Amino acid sequence: MATVRRTSLLFLAGTIMLIAVCLPARSAEITTPEKFLGFKVGADYKLATYEQAIGYLELLASQSPRIKVLDMGPTSMGRRQKYAVISSEEAMKDLDRFKGITKKLSLARGTAAAEAHKLAEEGKAVVYIDGGMHASEVVGSDQQIQLAYDLVTGEDRQTKLIRDLTGQSVLILYFLEQV
């Protein structure tokens, strides 16, 4: 009886280990904008504040290697001005190098033509998406929240194509401080 019990326990333990090894690890859940904000982006009579937008982007950055939130410094109101960078996981690993290349190419002082061409080949295009708005427009910054989520989590054909392209570029989402 003890042998049958021991064999059964070993079989059960082996089966559990086999299942654990064979099943793909489930990726960490990424919080939706709706869950974070408490309302759907674009819902009637609902707008995210600057603090909510930045808070969500910082949460998203803690949950995905495809996005990073950076600080530009203080605003005229004493708050921190932040922006998000979204790209492929590979490009994000070398973000500081790409920033250096972009800076060197934009200043162009002391850069020979041959070096500039080499840097241009190594660097990434920067796509700047401004979340600013005119006084009568209210969803510019809110759409950035949804866009960030969609670019980081989307698995449809179009988003994968954009993600493939972002391996060649760096997307910057910029939020203006709301007054």
What this model shows, in words?
With 179 residues, this protein is α+β, with helices and mostly antiparallel strands. It is 51% helix and 15% strand. It has helices at 2-22, 33-37, 50-63, 89-93, 95-107, 113-122, 140-153, 157-166; strands at 67-74, 80-86, 125-130, 169-174. The protein is globular and about 55 Å long. The chain starts with a helix and ends in a 5-residue tail after the last strand.
Structural class: alpha+beta
If classified by CATH, what would the architecture be? 3-Layer(aba) Sandwich
Task: Name the CATH class.
Answer: Alpha Beta
Largest sheet, strands/sense/barrel: 4 strands, mixed
Major sheet: arrangement of strands: 1-2-4-3
Radius of gyration: 23 Å
- In total, how many beta strands? 4
User: What fraction of residues sit in β-strands?
Assistant: 15-25%
Helical percentage: 40-55%
* H-E string: HHHEEHHHEHHE
The span between the termini is 76 Å
> What number of structural domains do the residues give?
1
Number of continuous helical runs: 8
Low-confidence stretches: 4-27
Average of per-residue pLDDT values:
77
CATH superfamily label:
Zn peptidases
